[in-house]
Design a protein that fits this description.
4% of the residues lie in helices and 53% in strands. With 297 residues, the protein is mainly β. It has one domain. It has a 5-stranded mixed β-barrel.
């Protein structure tokens, strides 16, 4: 019989990961760093994801104030996710801070340094994500650090009424949510709210079954490094995001690690490491990002 597990979006709650007494919670994922590679035609993209937990005292001074809304406040610890991406016309470094209990994103800061130079930080509040943006006003400013760029803007990306006051996460955090949740059997599913492309998306994560997947990646751990080769009976998950206030245009596509549309994520049941992610890239069509390196606790 198919087992179904449904979770309300307002909880996110990392699916009970940090509360040992929560029924149905899964053991914490064993990984802290991932590196993916995706190739299509003559193009190659790379993405690195690194996770760590920080004391709030280390993060609090860098949390931005906002003129609108009540900023989401951290607890005693903050989960930090650093995401580096290159290829397919993109070069970016993104730092996310989230509350490890509620799952709500506190702040997201991104620096684009490819063909388009831009620094942008979103401070998440109860009514929307407030942004501060900078970019070079002239060619002479391009070599300068972002804090010296003089073209600037700021403003609130207001949430739809149904998202106001709820915990809202950010797409890259879904890698952690998918790994940390009790997603094991076909039909297991969850729902979260994620801020992506200037709007809030209602995102569903659902296990569709298992699949034999051939892997070839380096696994690093305190006991040494090894090359993982062979078949894994991977957990197959479907990730679908739909803007709450969908307009119907192509720009409504949900995006994770540069991939858009309906996504497929395969997870190693032993370490809970994401093994591959498939989706669409506008200039390349269907693309699959495969794990090439993982750091295991």
């Amino acid at each position: 019989m198919m087992r179904t597990s449904s979770r309300p979006a307002c909880l996110l709650a990392w699916l009970g990961l940090f509360a040992a007494s929560t029924a149905g919670a899964h053991t914490a994922p064993a990984w802290s760093q991932l590196e993916f590679v995706a190739s299509k035609f003559f193009m190659t993209g790379r993405a690195e994801v690194e996770l760590r937990r920080l004391p709030v005292a280390e993060v609090a001074p860098a949390l931005l104030a906002t003129p609108e809304g009540r900023p989401v406040q951290p607890g005693s610890e903050v989960l930090e996710l650093v995401y580096r991406a290159s290829g397919f016309g993109r070069e970016s470094l993104t730092t996310l801070w989230a509350d490890p209990v509620s799952g709500a994103t506190l702040q997201r800061t991104e620096l684009d340094s490819g063909s388009r130079q831009r620094w942008r930080s979103y401070r998440f509040t109860d009514i929307g994500a407030y942004h501060y943006t900078r970019w070079p006003a002239t060619d002479a400013e391009k070599p300068l650090p972002p804090d010296r760029w003089t073209e600037r803007s700021q403003g609130l990306r207001a949430y739809s009424a149904s998202a106001v006051g709820q915990a809202v996460t950010e797409p890259t955090m879904l890698l952690w949510l998918a790994a940390a949740g009790d997603y094991q059997h076909a039909g297991d599913r969850g729902e979260v709210l994620a801020f992506s492309r200037k709007r809030v998306n209602r995102v569903t994560l659902e296990v569709t079954g298992r699949r034999a997947l051939r892997v070839d990646f380096e696994e690093r751990s305190p006991s040494g490094n090894r090359q993982r080769k062979g078949n894994v009976d991977a957990i197959v998950m479907r990730i679908r995001g739909q803007p709450i206030d969908a307009t119907g245009d192509d720009d409504d596509d949900f995006e994770l690690l540069g991939l858009r549309g309906d996504l497929e994520l395969l997870i190693d049941p032993a370490t809970r490491a994401p093994l591959q992610l498939s989706g669409n890239v506008k200039i390349a069509g269907q693309v699959t990002a495969r794990l090439r390196r993982a750091r295991i606790h």
